[in-house]
């Protein structure tokens, strides 16, 4: 589940490249008119198929980036309007990260402190989804535009959890700041002070007017506990407290209550933690050149052998063999 959001610009991007967007939509099995409104629902799988079809038809290896570059707060609908009236950038970003789970499942924006910087990042944690790289590159371009729109600030660096492309010039033109490929995550790095920057043109009165609409909108179809836990773990496996106690606190539950609710929903904390770790490990093995040692350290393992044994139990293959097979599948 996702909103069409910035993907409403997908047909225009295909047309700008000189190709027929109807053909891309037909290949992806998505109705063209489904992309007419940012608030329309679309699955992440369908979004991935669209971007894959767009890349195949146009030969453009950065189609997701081009789509994301068209993005703005307007693409976020009511949530974007609310963000635009926030007192500062930190509040605006948390308007999105704290509540996006109510209308988007399987992917999430997040804020991760890293020393004197914060990373405004994006992760697809649903599997399998095609074109994850393209989805995340588009999300970074959108996030770049959002922060510019909110306060005019540029990131100090853009991070990509994928191998360096043959031609990095489109990314340099899009962002105009240092780029780092083969990173552990997709994100924009900003000085930590960005969170206190006032939002340009914000109105406290207008924000108060929107509050009731936003609360009613976000009250629709709240996710179950397991879904909320998956979103929490998708971020903390990048660097954070992966304990049951920390997860329960983040979800506002007692650890015993969290365990009971998970059991009622047919899962366990340890199972969800393992899936979060190895979904990320699989993505990094398949899409980057990071060594298994670096990946194991990223996931919080002190010893490569422990990570390798755990990964083999999860996937049926040791990390190096899994990476080779993933490369072979992509080549085919």
TrEMBL record:
Q: InterPro entries attached here? A: AraC-type_N, Homeodomain-like_sf, HTH_AraC
Keywords annotated in UniProt: DNA-binding, Transcription, Transcription regulation
PROSITE patterns found in the cross-reference section: HTH_ARAC_FAMILY_2
- The segment(s) forming the HTH araC/xylS-type domain are 223-325
What name does this protein carry?
AraC family transcriptional regulator
Species the sequence originates in: Alsobacter ponti
């Amino acid at each position: 589940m996702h909103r069409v959001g910035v993907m409403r610009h997908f047909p225009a991007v295909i047309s700008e490249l000189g190709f027929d967007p109807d053909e891309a939509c037909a290949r992806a099995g998505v109705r063209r008119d489904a992309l007419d409104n940012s608030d329309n629902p679309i699955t992440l799988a369908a979004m991935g198929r669209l971007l894959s079809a767009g890349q195949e038809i146009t030969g453009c290896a950065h189609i997701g980036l081009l789509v994301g570059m068209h993005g703005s707060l307007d693409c976020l609908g009511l949530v974007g309007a609310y963000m635009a009236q926030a007192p500062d950038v930190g509040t605006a970003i948390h308007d999105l990260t704290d509540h996006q789970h109510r209308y988007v499942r399987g992917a999430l924006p997040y804020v991760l402190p890293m020393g004197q910087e914060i990373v405004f990042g994006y992760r697809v944690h649903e599997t399998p989804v095609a074109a994850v790289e393209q989805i995340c590159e588009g999300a970074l371009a959108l996030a770049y535009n959002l922060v510019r729109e909110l306060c005019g600030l540029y990131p100090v660096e853009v991070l990509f959890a994928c191998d360096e492309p043959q031609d990095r010039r489109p990314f340099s033109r899009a962002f105009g700041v240092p780029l780092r490929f083969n990173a552990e995550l997709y994100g924009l790095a900003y000085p930590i002070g960005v969170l206190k920057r006032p939002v340009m043109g914000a109105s406290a009165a207008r924000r108060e007017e929107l509050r009731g609409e936003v609360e009613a909108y976000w009250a629709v179809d709240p996710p179950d506990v397991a879904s909320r836990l998956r979103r929490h773990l998708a971020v903390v496996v990048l660097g954070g407290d992966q304990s049951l106690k920390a997860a329960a606190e983040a979800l506002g539950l007692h650890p015993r209550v969290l365990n009971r609710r998970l059991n009622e929903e047919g899962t366990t904390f340890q199972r969800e933690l393992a899936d979060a770790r190895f979904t990320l490990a699989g993505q990094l093995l398949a899409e980057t050149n990071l060594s298994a040692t670096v990946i194991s350290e990223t996931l919080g393992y002190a010893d490569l052998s422990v990570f390798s044994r755990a990964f083999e139990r999860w996937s049926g293959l040791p990390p190096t063999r899994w990476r080779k097979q993933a490369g072979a599948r992509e080549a085919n």
